[in-house]
Amino acid sequence: MYAVVATGGKQYRVKVGEVIATELLGETGSLVELRPVLYVEGPRVLATPAELAEVSVKGRVVTETKGPKIKGFTYKSKSNQRRRWGHRQRHSLVEITEIGTG
Fold first, then answer.
1. How far is CA 4 from CA 11, 34, 66, 68, in A?
2. What is the separation, in whole angstroms, between the first and last Cα of the chain?
3. pLDDT tens for each residue of 10-41
């Protein structure tokens, strides 16, 4: 049994017990509910919005981490304009605790 959930503009295939890195969702230890896009249990596949209304995917925020450093550099020629910048995105590690229907 697994589900495909959508959060933060991305989709993740999850099973119970897996840990996924998503966009920042909340405080450490808080419970979150993720929106299912697809639910598969053996030969049974639920994909329409009416069928997915009864499916729930719940998780717990384990911790908060940072992604890789992104470095950038902009300049304009002949005018001595230069700028270095960097960014490091924050992520939540979410452990999937429950996938179920009804």
1. 6, 10, 24, 25
2. 15
3. 999 999 999 999 999 999 999 999 999 999 99
φ and ψ of 44, to 5 deg: -85, 120
What is the C-alpha to C-alpha distance for residues 9 and 19, in angstroms, rounded to an integer?
Answer: 18
Q: Pick from 70, 67, 61: which is nearest to 92 by CA?
A: 61
What is the DSSP track for the chain?
Answer: -EEEEEETTEEEEE-TT-EEEEE--SSTT-EEEEEEEEEEETTEEE-SHHHHTTEEEEEEEEEEEE---EEEEEEETTTTEEEEEEE--EEEEEEEEEEEE-
* Distance, CA of 85 to CA of 72 (rounded, Å): 5
pLDDT of residue 101: 85
CA 46 remoteness from chain centre: 21
Could you tell me the pTM of the whole model? 0.82
